[in-house]
Amino acid sequence: MVENRPWANLIAHIVLISGVALVAFPVYVAIVASTHSLSGLLQGTLPLLPGGHGIENYTRMWQAGVSNAGAPPAALMLWNSFIMAMAITVGKLSISLLSAFAIVYFRFRFRMFFFWVIFVTLMLPVEVRIIPTFQVVADLKMLNSFAGLSIPLIASATATFLFRQFFMTIPEEMLEAARVDGAGPLKFFKDILMPLSVTNIAALFVIMFIYGWNQYLWPLIITTDPDYYTIVMGIQRMTSEENPQWQLVMAAVVMAALPPVLVILFMQRLFVKGLTETEK
Amino acid sequence: MQTKRMTYPGRFLPYALLAPQVIVTLIFFIWPAGQALYQSLLREDAFGLKTTFVGFENFVRLFRDGSYLNSLSVTAVFAVGTTLLSMTMALLLASTVNRMIRSRSTYTTLLVWPYAIAPALAGVLWWFIFNPSIGIVPYMLEMVGYRWNHRNSGSDAMLLVIFAAAWKQISYNFLFFLAGLQSIPQSLIEAASIDGASPTKRFWTIIFPLLTPTTFFLLVVNVVYAMFDTFAIIHSTTAGGPAQATNILVYKVYADGFVGLNLGSSAAQSVILMVIVVALTMIQFRFIERRVNY
């Protein structure tokens, strides 16, 4: 900053530390709650320091779940979440790369038409057309399956546009050189475009993985078989009970939040790049 | 729309490359949207045996229905509350972080991670700390003489969902404000301080006006977020209650269709929501095209 004012700096640090504390507070409470026994939590008010039942709660949630609330073991739900998130991410990235390649490097009839068909997906979030989409998936017999969990969510206008923007910035000479050397379209895609797009793919991967992992409404309505429950929606089964077992709920919340939070913390640069570019 | 100067010739290949994306879009986006349009013009009897074509009657009924009008105003309060709270907090934090030099990246890391937490989990977390019988915040509020109960009080419930939704969105807004702040030329701020402008004055006369493009962009994004991405927060906490005090539009579409099985009305609500999304997306694109400045 322009001038040096020790007082202003002190105030700034106080503002930021309270901001960080405020942002972290709900998660801190969850971590603390997951280390107490249920009776410890129900005794009047919530304790603010960790208790001694942490290992017990996490093992129980991981191995057994809360069967009377219809929540399978967390290990299973985390695995399902992982499969769904990966399927959505890989699906979105591959079909978007292919369509961006087609739109940028080919001239064909109805190009604009296809462009608009893809663009429309931007305007129709699942929440808005939930019932007819459910009916389509039910008619296709895709309820209670990983295909049903992931395929309806893999169309992506944002990823397609981002790759299109990026392909447009690749010098014309690349294609000219490749063609002079006799490379066909698929070889050009595989050996030149893909390696050049690695950073963009990685940045989008981070964003899409979080998007996939955090899906809620869609898994909630199309899975009735606990074998396909994902962790984010499985937690809802536990909280909608009459007397939720809060210590187990909070252990599950911590386990559900951990993977995407770790992804952001360790890939922060890619995450920021992905976030700012998908919104441009 | 442009392509490269030189392109590959292709009769079948481009279609094959586009096929997966287009097929998924047609089956799971366009077809259901068409179905919603079609069903919004029909009415089904109570047993689902007979459907009759009723034209725009579903829409007319909606706008005469008190609970739908209530849902519209609830959504407006929720969207405005979430957007203002989250953007104010984010702007405060971003402009403070921006004056730091050595600690900037540490604070940034400490503030961005809530983006990763699912809205459903954000709902559960806030539901828990505000729980009237075991939560920590009602306990503290009681000491200052306020009895918090989001199970009976509509305004308490609304505050709760606004807190949860705003909390989740702070890191997003923070990152965009920080990027906006960093693109403001340092020379402008130096010039102003040489002329004797105090930090507050510099903020309101230079920094804030130069941030308008970012602010407008975030306004639209946050309204879209509050209207459409917060289903999980409502569903995992208040379920629209008490007495429909938090029954926002996206939640009502689901509740009327899946729980109430009123397909015609739910489809009509879907169509109205689609119109709103299209309008908001258009606004967003216009802002991106010309990022206006003062």
TrEMBL record, chain A:
This is sn-glycerol-3-phosphate transport system permease protein UgpE. The chain crosses the membrane at residues 7-31, 82-106, 113-131, 143-163, 192-213, 246-267. Residues 78-267 form the ABC transmembrane type-1 domain. The gene is ugpE. Keywords: Cell inner membrane, Cell membrane, Membrane, Transmembrane, Transmembrane helix, Transport. One of its GO terms (cellular component) is plasma membrane. Part of the ABC transporter complex UgpBAEC involved in sn-glycerol-3-phosphate (G3P) import. Probably responsible for the translocation of the substrate across the membrane. The lineage of its organism: Bacteria, Pseudomonadati, Pseudomonadota, Gammaproteobacteria, Oceanospirillales. The complex is composed of two ATP-binding proteins (UgpC), two transmembrane proteins (UgpA and UgpE) and a solute-binding protein (UgpB). It is found in: Cell inner membrane; Cell membrane. Its main location: membrane. GO terms for biological process: transmembrane transport. It comes from Vreelandella sedimenti. Pfam families: BPD_transp_1. Belongs to the binding-protein-dependent transport system permease family. It is a multi-pass membrane protein.
Automatic annotation (TrEMBL), chain B:
InterPro entries: MetI-like (IPR000515), MetI-like_sf (IPR035906), UgpAE/MalFG_permease (IPR050809). Signal peptide: none annotated. GO terms for cellular component: plasma membrane. Residues 72-284 form the ABC transmembrane type-1 domain. It is a multi-pass membrane protein. The keyword Endoplasmic reticulum does not apply. The chain crosses the membrane at residues 12-31, 72-94, 106-129, 157-181, 202-228, 267-288. Keywords: Cell inner membrane, Cell membrane, Membrane, Transmembrane, Transmembrane helix, Transport. It is found in: Cell inner membrane; Cell membrane. GO terms for biological process: transmembrane transport. NCBIfam families: PRK10561.1. Belongs to the binding-protein-dependent transport system permease family. UgpAE subfamily. The complex is composed of two ATP-binding proteins (UgpC), two transmembrane proteins (UgpA and UgpE) and a solute-binding protein (UgpB). PANTHER family: BLL4140 PROTEIN (PTHR43227), SN-GLYCEROL-3-PHOSPHATE TRANSPORT SYSTEM PERMEASE PROTEIN UGPA (PTHR43227:SF9). This is sn-glycerol-3-phosphate transport system permease protein UgpA. It comes from Vreelandella sedimenti. The lineage of its organism: Bacteria, Pseudomonadati, Pseudomonadota, Gammaproteobacteria, Oceanospirillales. The gene is ugpA.
